[in-house]
What we know:
This protein has 113 residues and is mostly helical. Helix content is 71%, strand content 0%.
Amino acid sequence: MAKADRLERLDARRVELEADYLTALTGALGKAAAGSWGLFGHNGKDRAATSKWAPIVEELCDMGREIERMRDDLAMEPFGLHREFEASRGPVSPTAPGEPKQARAWLDRLGKA
């Protein structure tokens, strides 16, 4: 019974952390959609943008890793939202949409626009 209780508490914490992650990601996407570059790290040479967004990106990555550990302990599928976010970061082709446009697309897809 103790293991079942522990797993139930872990799952409840996972749900809470996933909601916190979505809130933090939505807030970051809103700032990026308003014209702030750096969330997606498309221009790694812009140190000012990188350092401005570093704490937010680090927080999202820390939460994402914690959620992944919880999901692994609960034998659940990986946390797709964080994996998509990580995959969307980094250098892109010169013809790729800009970060504000990409952020708006994310918000639309998440139903947060």
